[in-house]
């Protein structure tokens, strides 16, 4: 029996993002955006940064957030009204939103050795410390760097590709689930359920080496785990944006956070016990690290982490990886189901690389770049983690305004992704634009940027590519959605708000 107290990673949260093809009122060209000054060479003071009306004494713009269900829509409206830079004031801090790629690049180029996202990291870190837990995703400075660097070896491509056999197996189970649940007309009424099973199964595969069949999970643990992750993300938004009253008395968000965290720890312990109970023995006898061995085992064999810390990190990775990957995949499958021509193009490419009986691995996936392009194109339209803020240690001039050090600066990823001056036909789903267009690298940052970027990016990309390979190879997917743009909401992560109804027709019937 392994005992531990976990940390949990659920960073993907921050105030801001937007939806809809838009162009802001106060236009700014990409060319002049790299300049921080106005035409006359002057830089305006911070107080002049456009700001919405509705600020009230003490809580300032906080009241504007009351009752909103989609930060995306909220910020879309404000970019439209105020232009490519605006600010919201909260008690004790201002947050600046920027939807211009050159300005975003400037922010990231100045993020320094220890990038910090925003003050919310400190809030969550404060709570975790009280729980006697920690998580590098919420740490800062040298503490963050040291803890993150202990987990570096698992990111090498050979290791991530080492999980392909397991990813293939889980993806085949997705296909089985499709057959199990589709109706007589071939429709799966809500593919989100199957996607959630898949994302939990792949995550527990690379984290623990587990082989779960969530749809037939008699104990109900998979559902509880998913609910706890979702619940945690929901209350993180409150803890980040509301006054830090939880430091004085236990607010509802604070209590919910602890409740969901306790649940995660409880379930994580069950998984760890079940799949890694002989870990100490394996770590003791093995001097080799095997690509594709579970993360938990690798960390223990490397010996840089205690058993307690290794298991804590395993929980963090489940928390960080499950919903992000599931929502992204939901948007990808929706987009594919609306675009048979994209499926056909992908089908042509994958069947030119592998035969019927072969399974994708590292080598073959690299010969299927179109899968990557269609994921990117989906992330442009639907950035699931639209908030990659940075709080700089130094002052910076952005789009003609002076922004003081320690201000939270949030790129408007979704606004940029749908800006008609940056993309031709921005609302059109066109994966080919990633091979042909000259696209500014700081428009699309679905996994963030720099040393603080998503730790699990390679895992997520490989998992998704294997699933897409299997589904496109096996099925034609169609949907009868009336609109092109799928409605979505979310205060933390962006997720589809309606059932994703897809017809799966086997290619060989
Ligand atoms: C499509 C799926 C995913 C998306 C869209 C996503 C997105 C992000 C973003 C935007 C960040 C913040 C980056 C920044 O501030 O520059 C982040 C951080 C992080 N992600 Fe992911 N992520 C995904 C999957 C995963 C997976 C599968 C894992 C674990 C295996 C993971 C683990 C982490 C961790 C640990 C951090 C914190 C890094 C740090 O603070 O140093 N993510 N992710």
From TrEMBL:
CDD domains given in the database record: CYP24A1-like
Gene3D superfamilies: Cytochrome P450
Sequence positions that bind heme: 454
Span of the signal peptide: none
Keywords: Heme, Iron, Metal-binding, Monooxygenase, Oxidoreductase
A Pfam family the protein falls into: p450
Domain of life: Eukaryota
Cofactor: heme
InterPro entries given in the database record: CYP11_CYP27_families, Cyt_P450, Cyt_P450_E_grp-I, Cyt_P450_sf
Database matches in SUPFAM superfamilies: Cytochrome P450
PANTHER family, per database record: CYTOCHROME P450
Protein name: Cytochrome P450
Source taxonomy: Eukaryota, Metazoa, Porifera, Demospongiae, Heteroscleromorpha
